[in-house]
Design goal:
The complex is a heterodimer of chains A (about 110) and B (about 110). Chain A is an all-beta fold. In chain A, about 0% of the residues lie in helices and about 55% in strands. Chain A is built from no helices and 11 strands. Chain B has about 110 residues and is mainly beta. In chain B, strands 2, 5, 6, 10, 11 and 12 form a 6-stranded mixed beta sheet that branches. In chain B, strands 3-9-8-7 form a 4-stranded antiparallel beta sheet, with no helix packed on it. The chains are: A mainly beta (about 110), B mainly beta (about 110).
Chain lengths: ~110, ~110
């Protein structure tokens, strides 16, 4: 079975540019999570969707970040405009048991903003 | 609120040594407990889990027992290998609070 798929795997962009990260959750999973991981701050939950609806976006850093889930098989995380401090690895994870269940992670997108 | 505390790393061991990574938790209800592993350059992978008190999770030679009386879920392995070098995250999933919390992670380095 295919796991969580993320694209791109690596992204290098210049400050001020728009960045879009994509995620395809495991088929049949109804919960989706976006995380950010840095050396300084560790693993941070950005947003949690359940049945395509954003339930908790308290971790989204600021208005430059937005996330959508138009259907059960696709989600995007957008940063506009990007800044060097957004450089991090962004993970998408999905679960079939709500927020408290086992989460399955994608390989991550490594973002570098110059 | 719910929280997870792990021993600070990095932990450095020689191959075939015994491993313990301590994990304790605070939760309002009766959480499920997890250990995830992250190898260099990869995402987090579920290593093992336990859903109720006294359950033992095991996988790839790793074990952890859900201890409600001490609110702990320590990770153990009898003989580590160089390939076990990774970051290990303890986590809890709490049904009533609809919450999932990761610990800060413990980096393990195993030397040949």
């Amino acid at each position: 079975d295919a796991g969580v798929i993320q694209s791109p795997r690596h992204e290098v962009t210049e400050m001020g540019q728009e960045v879009t990260l994509r995620c395809k959750p495991i088929s049949g999973h109804n919960s989706l999570f976006w995380y950010r991981q840095t050396m300084m701050r560790g693993l941070e939950l950005l947003i949690y969707f359940n049945n395509n609806v954003p339930i908790d976006d308290s971790g989204m850093p600021e208005d430059r970040f937005s996330a959508k889930m138009p259907n059960a098989s696709f989600s995007t995380l957008k940063i506009q405009p990007s800044e060097p401090r957004d450089s991090a690895v962004y993970f998408c994870a999905s679960s079939d048991a709500g927020r408290q269940g086992t989460q399955y992670f994608g390989p991550g997108t490594r973002l570098l903003v110059l | 609120g719910d929280s997870v505390t792990q021993m600070e790393g990095p932990v450095t061991l020689s191959e075939e040594a015994f491993l313990t990574i301590n994990c304790t938790y605070t939760a309002t209800g009766y959480p499920s407990l997890f250990w995830y592993v992250q190898y260099p350059g990869e995402g987090l992978q579920l290593l093992l889990k336990a859903t109720k008190a006294d359950d033992k999770g095991s996988n790839k030679g790793f074990e952890a027992t859900y201890r409600k009386e001490t609110t702990s879920f320590h990770l153990e392995k009898g003989s580590v290998q160089v390939s076990d070098s990774a970051v290990y995250f303890c986590a809890l999933g709490e049904r009533y609070g609809q919450n999932f919390v990761f610990g800060p992670g413990t980096r393990l380095s195993v030397l040949p």
